[in-house]
Amino acid sequence: MHKVWLLKKCMLLILFTLSLFSAEVNHNIWKKGLDFEHYLEQHHISKSIINELDKDDIQLISEINDNRRYYEMIASNGVLLQTLIPTGEELQLHLYRTPQGYKLEIIPIAYKKDTYIAQLPVTTAPQSDIIRVVKNRRLATEFTKVLKHSVNFRAIQKGDRLAIVYDQKMRLGQPIGVPSIKVAMMETHKKRHYVFMHTDGKYYDEDGKELVKKYMGKPLHHIRVTSGFTHRRFHPIQKRWKAHLGTDFGARRGTPILAVADGKVIFSGWKGGYGNVIKIKHADGYVSLYAHQSRRKAKVGEYVTKGQVIGYVGSTGRSTGPHLHLGIYKNGRAINPMQMVKFSSKGLWGKDKQAFLRRKKKYTKIIDKIFDSNRPSYIWSTIDERSVSPKMKSYYKSLGW
């Protein structure tokens, strides 16, 4: 009897292995409105697989955004063999088929992060020129947002020049996530306008003056943090990767939830493990998310003000008790809400300002030298002739990158 069972198991393993040889890999875009549970239904996979995850993992599943690129391996008979679905810039869901059934795990996204430089003349408009030359639409959007408080884009003329120093994550030859601009410069009317990102993640002009001040209020009248924010960490006890892209606040059921800033409600409904959710779009690319509500008050399309009651604390969705999960996003990237609740209005002072000025001096010297000598950009591209050689990359590093 044992031999028969062993023979059947070996046959299953052989059939499963053979199916891999006729499989194909598809690159897809996550459709608007699709959640992970419906994705499982599409592939005839039991949703009970989600029950094996803990609360943080289940909430992470709710972080799959529209238009997210994901990868599938499909057998010739149409059966899903495995899929990789990013939940952010750091972690991804790995769903895979075994002879015993499907397994689900959360693993890090493998990517390469590098610093890039783009400098180019304006021929039509900065945003369209960046898209044309650098082939990075998100970089073009970020450049405009970063400089809009210090440059009059309507006054930019053909022949003006721009430069960007930015960090970009690359995965399978494609940029992933939002690029992090370290320095942005626009030369117009022979005057160079610089914007610098400091170590606190905020942007300042050449004098160390903060360009965009974001003051967010408390989401509850009384704050009690029960779970903090983390992009990704390897849990030393559970021996696996974990993430919590928000902050949890403990509160009684029915406690009023407050909008953290003025904005427009862009979502009010059910969102998987997050239960009842409201999302508010604010100025300068910020979005706030309020999950697990017992009752939602604000409606889609409604404009709310900072401190306005938008809903009430509950434990809907995958929740072990009444609490508020607050998520804050900057241009689609999850950031720590606790860094946004209170901002200092004093700008940079003392040693912090001195460190900024030293950093600014280093960057301006490098960019000015590249600009004045008309050095080529170091950009990612498979066909663009402006991509530099390894020798030029070494040159840039010798300048201080």
How are the secondary structure elements laid out?
Layout: H1 2-21, E1 24-29, H2 36-42, H3 55-61, E2 69-74, E3 80-86, E4 91-98, E5 101-108, E6 112-121, H4 126-134, H5 137-147, E7 161-171, E8 174-188, E9 191-197, E10 203-204, E11 225-227, E12 230-235, E13 240-244, E14 247-250, E15 256-258, E16 263-270, E17 276-281, E18 286-296, E19 303-304, E20 309-313, E21 323-330, E22 333-335, H6 350-372, H7 390-398
Antiparallel strand pairs: 1-2, 2-3, 3-4, 4-5, 6-7, 7-8, 8-9, 9-10, 11-14, 12-13, 14-21, 15-20, 16-17, 16-19, 17-18, 18-20, 18-21, 21-22
CATH topology of the largest domain: Nuclear Transport Factor 2, Chain: A
Can you count the helices?
7
Number of strands: 22
What proportion of the residues is helical, as a percent range? 10-25%
Rough outline: globular
User: What do the pLDDT scores average to?
Assistant: 81
- How would you classify the helix and strand content by structural class? alpha+beta
Q: Give the number of domains.
A: 3
Distance between the termini: 67 Å
Strand content: 35-45%
Order of helices and strands: HEHHEEEEEHHEEEEEEEEEEEEEEEEHH
Radius of gyration (CA) equals 24 Å
Label the CATH architecture of the largest domain: Roll
Task: Characterise the protein shown here.
The protein has three domains: 2-108, Nuclear Transport Factor 2, Chain: A; 112-213 and 346-398, Nuclear Transport Factor 2, Chain: A, CATH 3.10.450; 225-339, Glucose Permease (Domain IIA), CATH 2.70.70. Helices cover 21% and strands 36% of the residues. The protein has seven helices and 22 strands. The strands form four sheets. Strands 11, 14, 15, 16, 17, 18, 19, 20, 21 and 22 form a ten-stranded antiparallel β-sheet that branches. A five-stranded antiparallel β-sheet has the order 1-2-3-4-5, with no helix packed on it. The protein has a five-stranded antiparallel β-sheet with strand order 6-7-8-9-10, sandwiched between helices. Helix 4 (126-134) packs antiparallel against helix 5. The protein is globular, with a radius of gyration of 24 Å. Residues 1-15 and 380-388 have low confidence and may be disordered.
